[in-house]
Request: fold
Amino acid sequence: MAAEVKSTVAFIGLGSNLGNRVAYLQSAVNAIQHLGDSMSLSSVYESEPFGIGDDQQPMYLNMAVSIETKLGSEQLMSELMDIERANGRIRVRRNESRTLDLDILMFGDELIETSALVVPHPRMHERAFVILPLAEIAPHSVHPVLQRTMSEIAAGLSCEGVRCIGSLDAALSQATSTNPV
Reply:
């Protein structure tokens, strides 16, 4: 009898600031749900661009999802990169505008540091546009390095430039009734 592969709860950050941003988020959610079970979705947040050349970039939409998956962390990251490519993502420079950005924020309580993947995401605790959605779906999850809950981390961050625009369904409805979000 083969050993059963254990499931791990993975937290994934989603972001988009090019094209129909909400449609890219929905496309990613649809694809990610096939990578495991028990998916939870945060609200969608709009945030100012962060990083190099941010004054020239459009606003971002961000959200977080959790999924219980039997994939390993490297395989999950490979699948996420395939989803990015399927949605028009071309990696040229760091912190550039993108149709879709998918990051593994946490993978269970594992600490991973390879040339291809660092988990937990090394700067997530500094970014309200990452922590606010994550704290919404996993307020009591503990950052495996900082040993603080997502709610505690969120309480210590400035939320300037980040606003909740509602559920993904609400954002989709708004996008189809007006201009693309």
Notes: The CA atoms of residues 75 and 127 lie 26 Å apart. Strands lie at 8-16, 37-41, 44-47, 60-69, 101-107, 112-113, 118-119, 162-166. The chain has a mean pLDDT of 89. The domain at 8-177 is CATH 3.30.70.560 (Alpha-Beta Plaits).
